[in-house]
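Email to the structure team, subject: Lipase model.

Hi all, the expression group asked for a predicted structure before they design truncation constructs. Nothing fancy, just the tokens so they can compare against earlier work. One-line instruction: predict Lipase, return tokens.
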Amino acid sequence: MGAGVGYAAADGVALVPGVGGTGHTRRVHDPGRSRSALPLKGAGITTVPPDTLSRIRTGAYAGAAPAHGWHPLVVLSPGFSLPRSSLTSLGEDLASQGYVVAGIDHTYENFGETFPDGHTTTCVACEFDPLLLMSTAAMHTPSSRDTTWSDAWQHLTGWKPWITVTGTERSSFTDRHPLADELGRTFGADISGARAVQITRAYGAFFDRSLRHRPEPPLDGPSSIDPKVTFWN
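Reply from the structure team: attached below.
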């Protein structure tokens, strides 16, 4: 994961440490053909020179001393496939108002992330576009009143296993279920919190299969081992 930090300088101007050295306005993207070209390629833009983004200057400067005092922190996390530079205008505005702004890059989930040693990564996850849908059978089956999952599932283009677990509630896939059991509380689930955790972890094999390309039998389909688990894909 990469990150960049913006802050207010002593003279009140929003400053961001980065390429260019002290006193130079910061580029939207680090210089280099591939580092600028990858985000353009990811957005399907082919009608401008590949180094276009690396030639755009922002309103921030690099390497200035920060303003003294206490400054609240704001973390900006861009959407899937987008680099932190896509939030530059918002980040600069917040920094100019006295906030410390940390923009983060999700490695392999965005186009054109450049690290301090100079190497650049691209959006590996975009090539596979996998998505696991996993929830309670009481809410998210193809016949449920809430059709948002069914509508979205039809438009997914990658591997898209859709799994529901009978006897669970929404919180069963979080720590709330086992914690509630320990506290003697209940919220309508028919299985124990410990069993819910086991099932959630078992189908977490989705990540090994989609990102490490390892065969994971639990994701092959229904199994007598987990009769409460139903596959809808």
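The chain has seven helices and eleven strands. The longest strand covers residues 2-8. Ping us if the truncation boundaries need rechecking.
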